[in-house]
Amino acid sequence: MATIAIIDYGMGNLRSVQKGFEKVGFEAVVTADPKVVLEAEKVVLPGVGAFRDCMRNLEQGGFVEPILSVIQDGRPFLGICVGMQLLFTDSVEFGLYQGLNVIPGHVLRFPEGMREGGEDLKVPHMGWNQLSIKRRPSAFSDVEDGANVYFVHSFYAKPDEEGVVAATSSYGIDFCAAVWKDNIVATQFHPEKSQAVGLSILKNFALSKA
Question: Which domains does the chain show, CATH number per domain?
Fold first, then answer.
């Protein structure tokens, strides 16, 4: 049984995530086999690109049912960037597209004309930004409030229930930077690109029981 399975559905920075786990002493298997995902102790869903394309590839690769089964079984599950957005009900990127609907809520685009400090803000939101910790899953056990992490995104998830928000960040508006629901932790930012803070999150996830 693979301890940590990273889902390869053609839409993620897979090797960077795998190397992140290796740096903190854990082996993670990149797999395009739904059976390996179904049997894994812990599962990581990364994601880069458009929500629509990511969801289509998950469906065509036969990953939807294994993902839902892993989550229902209570096994630790980590979503990263679009991998977090896919957990929500739907996204307005390039139309309206249905997600996995594990976490009720919607994926929205940053508003036009955002300004901060008298300057126009560019979309995508790209670069380092601070976290405001709201709730602390075990993966965030040693992440300090105000820690800097790395973002690259034009869309953000808005949960129906504020209670699932683990952290927020601010870019013109306050937005959800991480969620925590039962055995699911998911981040809009990239832990694998967030240096010591991100590596700590990966290590804590690898050690987590649920």
Answer: 4-207 (3.40.50.880)
